[in-house]
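User: Now give one protein:

AI:
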Amino acid sequence: MFPIRDDIPSGRLPIVNWVVIGICAVVFLAQWQESQRPGPSLVERFGMIPVRVLHPDRPVMIPDVQVVRTPFGLQQQMDERLAAPAAVPDPWTLLTCVFLHGGWMHFLGNMWFLFIFGDNVEDRLGHLGYLLFYLGCGLAASFAHLATNSTSNMPTIGASGAIAGVMGAYFYLYPRASVLTLIPIVFYVDVISLPAPIFLGIWFVFQLVQGVVASSVAQASTGVAWWAHIGGFAAGVAAMMLFAQTFGMVARPAKEST
C-alpha cells in the first residue's frame, strides 16, 4: 500500500517537517557525492553500528562488498574490513543515523510518508514540540534496534523509525481520518480511501510479522531494521497517550483544523 494523501487540513505551516525533509535531502546528496570518492562513507562514520555503540573500545569489522572480475563477468563478492571510527561519539550515532539513507527509493519513500503524515502531527504539537517528538522517536527506534540486534556489525541508517513514530502519533490523534491509498494487485492497480487506523494498523502488523521472522534468522539476510520501525511506532503512540493524560490532548475528528 502506498499513501497518496490524507484528508486532514493542517492549521499551520509545517515548518519543522519541511526543515527535516530538507536536511535529509542535503545529507542524501552529500552521501551521493562522497560515494564517488574513495575512503570511509558517511554511512560508516555516522551510521549506528550496534557492536560499535556497545563496545566502543573494540575494533569492529563491517561487511564490505567488492566488485571483482570473473570469467563470467563482473560479480559482487562479500568481504569484511575494519570500520572507520565514528565521526561523533558512538552514542550520538543513534541520532545521526536517522538522517542517512541507503538509496533513492529508501530516501524518497521515507520523505513521502513524512510529508503525508508529519504536517498534521506538527499542527497538534507545535513546532518545537514536534521537533523534540521526532528526534525522540528516532532515538527510541534506534534503541529498539540496538536491543534486538546487539551483536550486529551492520551500519543502521534511515529515518523510517522516526517516521514510524510520526505515524503512531497520527494513528492516535486522527482516528477518523482517511488516507487515499494506491494498492497494486498483481497486474492491476486500484486507488481507494482507507480509514487511517486501518492503513496504519496494517502497516504496523506487517512490520511486526517481519520483525518476528527476522528475529529467527540472521538480520543481515533481511536488510531491514524492522524492530526500529516497531519501536518508533510504539513510542509515537505511547507519547501521545502520555500527552493526552498530561495535557488533555484529545483525538481530533477528520477535516477539522485549528
Remarks:
- The chain has one domain: 2-247.
- DSSP finds nine helices and five strands in the chain.
- Strands lie at 2-6, 61-70, 73-82, 178-185, 188-195.
- The longest strand covers residues 61-70.
